[in-house]
Design goal:
heterodimer, A: mainly alpha, Four Helix Bundle (Hemerythrin (Met), subunit A), 2 domains, about 0% strand, B: mainly alpha, 2 strands, globular
């Protein structure tokens, strides 16, 4: 087994374990910490795929900013342990179960099926994860979607400010 | 497979050196802080343990280790124990990418733990933003109103100042053209330090660094008149010591970042050309020592500045802190990027750059 495979296995196990912990913990802070660890494991997996930029941004944005906000809100509201919720069977649950089953089926079929061929990475695509390459692609080939997303984010920022301000005025 | 054990050995030695030198420097930083504050307040400061009190910090660490570790009954024990470890672990992890020099043996740069990483700067920013979890979890797990407020303030402060910090760095990045810290230092060689081209960015970064390290005047998470001791109220013994140490290591990290990004790292104009003439070039271990010496020499004034400011300025009020972060620093940092972009475009148009 090469170092690569060992690293991948460790990180994959960590990712799955923390993912399971995230949904099973009753304490909201424990769940949030599991999610943070999960992001670290994901970032490690990106590193094994040569995607350094994505790995760094994963930690910087998700673990370092978004999850800090989530933990902040949990602490600010001082949420206690989640109460055992009794939920009656309703159509929503049925749809959820059916869609999850379909997803699992698809995953099983994908991983047990015969591989159609081995993809060899070209020399150019091996460097694709570096910041310089991603910058070049984002600002040349994909400039329009990139700008469209930034406009979308701007709209979201303006919208959230308007919503927040309205509650203050009342 | 033969090359890996040698590489692993070199890595192990580097890690051992970095961690231990770091702890010793942090211990002496505590000593210097106490001495400088004493001079500023016409006191004597520590002078009992060893000559000039030089071994005071070690005596303090021994005291902290032998103290009883009191864990209050109603804390969340798991997170209460792990929070100081997160704090110090992450503050030390940043040193994986900081280059202290450029000295090659068999094509391996020996002056950094993991040199030449293409995402070096992003890694530094990521680690400094993740470091807040230690303080936040400590505040939450202590099950104490004051600790919780301290943890909350820390999280809010970190989010507010991280933005200006990252945006202030973009100006320097545009000039250096790389996220690799080694490349950033190289691009500044010969006195072309980013400090001279990015004075606004430099000041914003420095102020944000104060906020990120929770140093006065931004030490609201532990403001003792309002919050008893803030996030470390319920900590005693070496667990408190780890938070204390982490603060000093963070201060050192911030100084290292300023040195690498704005002060040209180990660069001094004309020094290395003249050294090469005198026969000190790649292959001579003296070069590595001189580079580290220059790097360290640039750190000392910065560290002194951190201490100087702490004992000169009163603490901000919370709303002042938020106003400064969002209404002054953030627009300034954005204006700095715009200005840098315009000037660079003009210079490129006339073919100067």
């Amino acid at each position: 087994m090469s170092l690569h495979v060992i690293m991948f296995s460790l990180l994959a196990i960590l990712a799955i374990a923390t993912g399971v912990l995230l949904v099973t913990r009753r304490n909201p802070v424990s769940a949030a910490v599991s999610l943070i660890l999960h992001f670290f494991a994901l970032s490690g997996l990106y590193l094994t795929l040569n995607a350094q930029f994505l790995a760094a941004v994963q930690i910087l944005v998700y673990a370092g900013a978004i999850m800090v906000l989530v933990v902040f809100v949990i602490m600010l509201l001082n949420l206690g342990k989640e109460q055992n919720m009794r939920e009656n069977f309703n159509p929503r649950t049925a749809i959820t179960i059916a869609m999850s089953a379909a997803l699992i089926m698809q995953l099983v079929l994908t991983f047990t099926g015969n591989p159609t061929g081995k993809n060899q990475l070209s020399a150019a695509s091996e460097k694709i994860g570096s910041p310089a390459e991603i910058g070049n692609i984002l600002y040349s080939t994909y400039i329009f979607p990139f700008e469209a997303i930034s406009l979308l984010l701007l709209v979201a920022v303006v919208g959230s400010i308007i919503l927040a301000k309205r509650t203050v005025d009342k | 497979m033969d090359a890996i054990p040698a590489g692993a050995l070199i890595l192990g030695v580097k890690l051992f050196l970095v961690v231990n030198v770091l702890l010793i420097i942090a211990a002496y930083l505590v000593y210097f802080e106490r001495k400088i504050s004493a001079w500023m307040q016409s006191r004597v400061g520590p002078n009992r343990v060893g000559p000039l009190g030089l071994f005071q910090s070690f005596a303090d660490v021994f005291k902290l280790y032998t103290k009883e570790d009191i864990v209050p009954a109603l804390v969340d024990k798991k997170y209460h124990m792990i929070a100081p470890v997160i704090s110090i672990g992450i503050s030390m992890a940043t040193y994986a990418v900081i280059p202290f020099g450029e000295y090659y043996v068999d094509g391996v740069n020996l002056m950094a733990v993991a040199p030449g990483i293409s995402i070096g700067l992003l890694y530094l920013l990521a680690m400094s933003s993740v470091g807040v979890y230690g303080i936040t979890l400590a505040g939450w797990s202590s099950n104490n109103k004051y600790s919780l407020l301290g943890g909350l303030r820390s999280a809010a402060q970190m989010i507010s100042y991280e933005l200006s910090m990252g945006l202030a760095l973009i100006g320097a990045l545009m000039i250096s053209g790389s996220l690799d810290l080694l490349e950033i230092v190289k691009s500044q060689s010969g006195g072309k330090w980013n400090l001279f081209f990015q004075p606004i960015g430099f000041i914003i970064f420095l102020v944000a660094a104060f906020a990120e390290t929770n140093r006065a005047p931004f030490d609201l998470p532990e403001a003792e008149p309002e919050l008893v001791g803030g996030y470390h109220t319920e900590y005693s013994g070496m667990k408190f010591g780890l938070f204390y140490l982490a603060e000093y290591i963070n201060m050192l990290t911030a100084s290292c970042m300023v040195t690498v990004i704005y002060l040209g790292g180990w660069d001094i104009p004309f020094l290395y050309e003249n050294l090469a003439k005198a026969g000190i070039s790649q292959g001579n271990p003296l070069l590595a020592l001189i580079q580290f010496g220059v790097f360290f020499g640039k750190l000392i004034p910065l560290l002194f500045f951190f201490i100087w400011v702490r004992w000169s300025l009163p603490r901000f009020r919370y709303d002042q802190l938020m106003d400064l972060g969002w209404k002054v620093m953030l627009p300034l940092a954005l204006a700095n990027i715009l200005l840098t972009g315009i000037v660079m475009t003009i210079l490129q148009y006339f073919g100067i750059l």
